[in-house]
Design a protein that fits this description.
Number of helices: 9
CATH superfamily: Transposase IS200-like
Number of domains: 1
Radius of gyration: 17 Å
Largest sheet: 5 strands, antiparallel
Order of helices and strands: HEEEHHHHHEEHEHEH
Strand content: 15-25%
CATH class: Alpha Beta
CATH architecture: 2-Layer Sandwich
Structural class: alpha+beta
Distance between the termini: 13 Å
Strand order of the largest sheet: 6-3-5-4-7
Helix content: 40-55%
Shape: globular
């Protein structure tokens, strides 16, 4: 399961990569909760709010604050406002179409056990959740680039459209211990019901993840 990441390891081994809206924290062979979404899923005003959050975080890091303290703020950064827009079904919601959702689900599982371990996943109407543990030699950024690039090409072909399919930014949270791991798995698997989607089929988890949340 997810390994515990103590403060010392986090401080000295973590790599901080600046994204379009927020910084990203990565560690070698760690487990993450990632969220990526369709290009039209959030209004420009919400994106502007993310840019303000990003600027504030970068200013705090430049002032010398510990990176781990910022990482722990992630649940608050992924604000209720953003989740409300996503779960309300903003945008074209191409992933409501079974043939498109199927492409994304197949893409997520294609290299499971080779390039990464896929612990849990859910394809929502306008965004995707995954709990993923990249394997050595496959950084998270490479896994996400492969997922988004391939699925976008195939989805656009099926839809008979061209242009940007996914929003470039991906939101990711490094899961530091078993409690965070179990909470993230439950969140991913329960997201359809939380959004009012009953009988939603586009989700799943590994046997290890299932046992972990049953025990916890």
């Amino acid at each position: 399961m997810v390994r515990t990441v103590d403060d010392a390891l986090f401080r000295y081994a973590v790599h901080i990569r600046n994204g379009a809206y927020l910084p990203h924290w990565t560690l070698p062979v760690a487990t993450y909760h990632v969220v990526f979404r369709l290009a039209d899923s959030l209004p420009a005003a919400v994106l502007a709010d993310w840019e303000c959050e990003r600027a504030a975080l970068l200013a705090q890091m430049r002032s010398g604050d510990c990176a781990s303290a910022h990482a722990e703020r992630w649940p608050h950064l992924f604000s209720e406002r953003v989740e409300r827009f996503l779960d309300a079904g903003s945008g074209a919601c191409w992933l409501l179409r079974p043939e498109v959702a199927g492409i994304v689900a197949e893409t997520l599982g294609h290299f499971d056990g080779v390039r990464y371990r896929l612990e849990a996943w859910c394809v929502m109407p306008n965004h995707v959740h995954a709990i993923v543990r990249p394997q050595e030699g496959w950084p998270l950024s490479s896994v996400l680039k492969s997922w988004k690039g391939y699925s976008a090409r195939q989805a656009n072909r099926v839809l008979g459209r061209a242009g940007v399919f996914w929003q470039p930014e991906t939101y990711d949270r490094l899961l530091r211990d078993g409690a965070e791991y179990c909470a993230a798995v439950r969140y991913v698997l329960n997201n359809p019901e939380a959004a009012g989607l009953l009988g939603w089929r586009w989700r799943g988890c590994s046997e290890q993840a299932r046992k972990a949340i049953e025990i916890a």
